[in-house]
Amino acid sequence: MRLLHTSTLKLEDFIGVRYRPPYAILSHTWGDDEFLFEEAQNRIPQDLGNPKRGLRKVLDACKRARGDGLDYIWIDTCCIDKSSSAELSEAINSMFKWYMESTNCYVFMEDVTFEMDGTMRNFVTSRWFTRGWTLQELIAPHGLLFFDRDWKYMCSRDEIAPTLEKITHITPSILERSHISPVSDLGRVFRCVGCGHVDAVKEMLRTESISNKMRWAANRVTTRPEDASYSLLGLFDINMPLLYGEGENAFWRLQEEILHKYPDQSILTWTDRSKGDTSRPYFTKTPASFLFRVSQSVNGMIERGGIIATSRGLEIDVMVGPCAFCRKKLQPAILTEKLFMAVLNCAVEKSPLTRVAIFVRPLTPGAPDTAYIRVYNDRLIQLQPGAPPLVLEGGLEETIRELNDMTVEYNPQRLSQRRILLAPVNAADHYIKTQPIVQLNAPGIEKVTGHSKHLQMRDEPMIPYKRSSFGSGDKGFSTLNLSLAIYLGNGNSGFFVLYGVPSLSEDGDLMAWVETWRSFFQEDPSSDNLRDLQWNTFDKGLRKYLSNHARESTVFATEISEPDFKAKVGTKTFEFLVT
């Protein structure tokens, strides 16, 4: 560990805890003119009249540490040689430990002003609360002190724990840790000499569910996408090689490493509206998907073997049974073996009798066995005794909302305890084996044949929520909640083709038989030959056309039936001219 001497302003190396002196540590947000390691290798001049902001921050932090009787301080901008990948990897994997073992942690909030009346102006909206790295810097230290833009002391973490809980959602007992005087060299990690308090932050974190800890990081951002994962290593007590450039794969690796150490099924209580493909659909791409507050299980303990990451996928011990996701109706739905619910071993926080469940579908349609894929990724089920299931949906604004018009019907007697496999394949990869060729015939264009290998399938069926009307009179028609909307043309004229037309059921609800597709094209939509596609203007263009033309071309509707596959397919096309 490399420390900066607060008086001589020289960098010094210390190997091992035994020979390392007490030190302060700085928590802050980076700016454009930080004082870096390359500059700190030369002795820092102390008589600068007007140093740049980054250096000014370092000098003020050293001054504060000296005032607290500390000869050394660690600052990430100048104490890490980031040109060395080995040193950077060691520092990131050790950072939580370094913050935890510090005597004092100074939080410098450059955008906060401490007023004469004690008001901390802009504190709640400070940028410091939005950065990924500052999460562990808030949690790990035993003594944490907040300073404003002029280095005026504002408060300690324990003094404003209720406010911090509202901002960060972190469990209060973790935020209330404090001490009266600096900790000793020998026992500073475990016990405060001044107040005798045992700082068991790692033990506290182990009792928190994976989902809750991810939720703390949900609204935080990092400059590099990989750092959204690397900044959580200490929070989960994980050591992992750093591979900058791997992108979202870093978060998948992190989730796998977490499960190897903590087999907690709450890692599946995420909701994600993204339709991107992944070879591991049981994992999500970002901490922002964790919005639901859950505990590990009824007794707060993790059952070893409840969830295991293997090369075949995730093996989980759950209660599983058929269900129906439908609108609230008077008559019960017919339960088939197409859609199942898997009840996880975790409860809604502070409601130990509740359970959280996810939607799953057999890997082989119509033949449920031990292999499943997760579907309806943006929804969870909350089960509670004596009450109907609640369908919870992840919102666009980092919130969970209840779908009041939808419900899940199931028979508790058909739920059985078993070990199932969440398979590491995307739904499209499987259905390609059974999906037939689709032909679209439309007036004015040649026959279009699209084989399923050219299509990207979403891993859930479509369920419409509402109907509206385009146009008026005989020009109007009910909104078709489409399985596919494609544009065929050169950007100046062409056709919108609507694939998978739903029909009206007896009770007036729209029903769809076909799977939902994302694209009809083999090429990436961003490629040059498809750059004229206006996916975001489909609704606007269709409205404009129907307001000017009464003509409507209905193509065909047929029923396709093959082994392991049944679907009703309908298409409609509307000529669309750009004017």
Tell me about this structure.
The protein has 579 residues and is α+β, with helices and mostly antiparallel strands. The protein folds into 3 domains: 2-207, no CATH class; 287-431, no CATH class; 483-521 and 531-577, no CATH class. The strands form 9 sheets. A 7-stranded mixed beta sheet has the order 2-1-4-3-5-8-9. A 5-stranded mixed β-barrel has the order 12-13-15-16-21. A 4-stranded antiparallel beta sheet has the order 27-28-33-32, with helices on one face. A hairpin with a 2-residue loop joins strand 11 (307-310) and strand 12. It is elongated and about 80 Å long.
Tell me the layout of helices and strands.
Layout: E1 2-5, E2 11-13, E3 24-27, H1 37-40, H2 53-67, E4 72-74, H3 76-79, H4 85-100, E5 104-108, E6 113-114, E7 120-121, H5 134-139, E8 144-147, E9 153-156, H6 161-168, H7 172-175, H8 201-207, H9 210-216, H10 227-230, H11 249-261, E10 294-295, E11 307-310, E12 313-327, E13 340-343, E14 347-348, E15 355-362, E16 371-375, E17 379-384, E18 387-394, E19 400-402, E20 406-410, E21 416-422, H12 427-431, E22 438-440, E23 448-450, E24 456-461, E25 469-470, E26 477-478, E27 484-489, E28 493-499, E29 503-504, E30 510-511, E31 515-519, H13 538-548, E32 553-562, E33 565-577
Parallel strand pairs: 3-4, 3-5, 5-8, 16-21
Antiparallel strand pairs: 1-2, 1-4, 6-7, 8-9, 10-14, 11-12, 12-13, 12-20, 12-21, 13-15, 15-16, 15-17, 17-18, 18-19, 22-23, 24-31, 25-26, 27-28, 28-33, 29-30, 32-33
